[in-house]
UniProtKB/TrEMBL annotation, chain A:
This is Carbon-nitrogen hydrolase family protein. It comes from Pseudonocardia aurantiaca. InterPro entries: Aliph_Amidase/BUP, C-N_Hydrolase, C-N_Hydrolase_sf. Residues 4-251 form the CN hydrolase domain. Coiled coil: none annotated. It comes from the Bacteria. GO terms for molecular function: hydrolase activity. Keywords: Hydrolase. PANTHER family: CARBON-NITROGEN FAMILY, PUTATIVE (AFU_ORTHOLOGUE AFUA_5G02350)-RELATED, NITRILASE C965.09-RELATED. CDD domains: nitrilase. Pfam families: CN_hydrolase.
Automatic annotation (TrEMBL), chain B:
It comes from Pseudonocardia aurantiaca. The keyword Nucleotidyltransferase does not apply. Residues 4-250 form the CN hydrolase domain. The keyword Hydrolase applies. InterPro entries: Aliph_Amidase/BUP (IPR050345), C-N_Hydrolase (IPR003010), C-N_Hydrolase_sf (IPR036526). This is Carbon-nitrogen hydrolase family protein. Pfam families: CN_hydrolase.
Length: 275, 285
């Protein structure tokens, strides 16, 4: 497969789908100019995130979209040959999911419904039921949404299913109780980085972490998008401002090289993990 | 519970048991004088580690968990809880890379290393379980070195109720491509990364001891540390020998860390597929 340029996006999105689609178009155009093959947009890139993470207003949810509907079809058309991941509010009957989709011009390659929900979110969203990797033109991918990456089991489950690249889409806010003057010093920013680096290193995979910037309700989003190599080292990153962190990675070679001497997935001892 | 003063040690140890015991005695005495009640000594601090990880070498002296050396360690510990690594002579005739948790009353628990890097399995048998245990300073779990690369190991201990995990190591710098600055070495960075991530994702207190100096062909990264239940390093030795000391009200710290989001209780095991817990034997049958 050779070298892939991978882009992790930090940007702000809101309830206005026209605005969001225009911004996605601009980001894809910039990424295409840089020959990016995989672009990971934030969670809630179509429609924005909740107005309040602790006490969301059920009447002010993002527009609920059908994965087979015109909005994702438009993103797929914009993507063309590029592999693009993005988050949105998924409608399935009366249920709503916080969902990530992976698309190319050929359509939807994979969907992931967020499994782990912070307390307030479960009042308005149903939870996903699992993690599955899928094949794409840039290699086998897996997706996580927000809080999923707090739990090592999430990334592990995708890596064991063969994912060599993890796309982690977030709408991750700063600490509400103890906001730091500099965004990168914020407690939540440090945790966000720690999860990104650890999930990459312990699974020896490439991890692409996107996040919202800007504000929604009382929340301010962290940005800090990044591409992490299979040894846990950060290859490219943004800070608190909007932007695309781009890294050039030969995924198969990087993963193969990281696993040549010590291969964590093979060295697991599940029979000892009963606790 | 009141505040608990705890410490993790970075120090060098070799094959000479008398020298090792002398060093352990000094470290324990200093820690006692500093009010430390839980002390983590490095992996293989009684007898030293292997000289290389690529093949079988001269093993450290093999000690029985109920033998005179571990009894001597318990006597040194006295009123403190001390975790130390040694080469265990198993009843099955095999050697194990083991940790013992002792007080003056004797051995509270033993642990045999599960995850073995490279050729370590040529010298040692492999442990078969992770289990937490009660101690005078709270419920503890133990693991050794490479175990920390596997989130499942710390998770198993935390789910078994461990409030503090003591992770003891002989973690070396990169052998193939060492960075001129040991603090920037990629194996050092991974050592630090895993220490912080395991504490954070389980919302537990984490004590990491490590060898310092060199042994055979191995150069160790030192950087013993205490990590709080939010993944922040509260004390560390850096790349030198020393003792990292911190005081934490463990029960209160865990309660606070878990109050709004409890990672252990918010797990979704049914969603984890192959990464989920192993099937109970009864369910398989």
């Amino acid at each position: 497969m050779g070298v892939t340029k991978i882009g992790a996006v930090a940007a702000s999105f809101g309830r206005d789908l026209e605005f969001d689609l225009a911004r996605i178009g601009t980001l894809i155009e910039h990424a295409r100019r840089d020959r990016v093959g995989l672009l990971v947009l934030p969670d809630a890139a179509l429609g924005g995130y909740l107005d309040d993470i602790a006490d969301p207003d059920p009447n002010a949810l993002p527009p609920a979209l059908d994965p087979d509907g015109p909005e994702l079809a438009e993103v797929a058309a914009l993507a063309g040959e590029m592999v693009v991941c993005l988050g949105f509010c998924e409608a399935d009957g009366d249920r709503r999911y916080n969902t990530a989709a992976c698309v190319t011009g050929d359509g939807v390659l994979g969907l992931h419904r967020k499994v782990h929900q912070p307390p307030g979110e479960s009042r308005v969203y149903a939870a996903g039921s699992g993690f599955s990797a899928f094949d794409s033109p840039v290699g086998r991918l897996g997706m996580l949404v927000d809080h999923d990456k707090t739990f090592p089991e999430s990334a592990r489950s995708l890596a064991l299913d063969g994912a060599e690249v993890l796309a982690c889409l977030s709408a991750w806010p700063t600490s509400v109780t103890n906001r730091a003057p500099r965004m990168a010093d914020d407690r939540q920013a440090k945790l966000f980085d720690l999860y990104d680096r650890s999930r990459a290193a312990e699974n020896q995979v490439v991890l692409v972490s996107s996040n919202l910037t800007g504000a929604a309700g009382r929340m301010r989003f962290l940005g800090q998008a990044k591409v992490v190599g299979p040894d846990g080292g950060i290859l490219a990153r943004t800070w608190s401002k909007a932007g695309i962190a781009i890294a050039e990675v030969d995924v198969a070679a990087a993963v193969g090289s990281a696993r040549r001497v010590l291969a964590h997935l093979r060295e697991r001892r599940p029979e000892t993990y009963r606790g | 519970m009141a505040k608990l003063r705890m410490a993790a040690v970075a120090a060098p140890f070799g094959r000479d048991l008398e020298e090792d015991f002398a060093r352990v005695s000094t470290i324990v005495a200093d820690a006692r004088a500093a009010g430390v009640r839980l002390l983590a000594l490095p992996e293989a601090c009684l007898g030293g580690y292997l000289e290389s990880l690529t093949g079988p070498g001269e093993p450290p002296p093999a000690l029985r968990p109920d033998g005179p050396e571990i009894a001597r360690l318990a006597k040194i510990a006295g009123d403190m809880v001390v975790v130390a690594g040694y080469c265990e002579q198993g009843d099955d005739g095999r050697l194990y890379n083991s940790a013992a948790c002792v007080t003056g009353d004797g051995v509270l628990a033993g642990y045999r290393k599960v995850h073995q890097p490279l050729g370590e399995g040529l010298s040692f048998g492999r442990g078969d379980r992770f289990a937490a245990f009660d101690s005078p300073v709270g419920r503890l779990g133990m693991q050794i070195c490479y175990d920390k690369a596997f989130p499942e190991a710390a998770r198993a201990l935390a789910l078994d109720g461990a409030e503090i995990v003591v992770s003891i190591s002989a973690w070396p710098l990169s052998a193939t491509d060492p960075h001129p600055d040991p603090a920037q070495d990629r194996w050092t960075r991974r050592f630090d990364l895993f220490d912080r991530a395991r504490a954070l994702e389980n919302q537990i207190v984490w004590l990491a001891a490590n060898q310092s100096g060199t042994f055979g062909r191995l150069r160790f990264v030192a950087n013993a540390k205490v990590v709080d239940a939010g993944g922040e390093i509260v004390a560390a030795t850096g790349q030198a020998a020393g003792t990292a000391v911190a005081e934490i009200d463990v029960a209160a710290a865990l309660e606070e860390a878990r109050r709004s989001m409890g990672h252990l209780s918010n797990r979704r095991p049914e969603a984890y597929g192959a990464a989920g817990p192993p099937m109970p034997v009864a369910a398989v049958a």
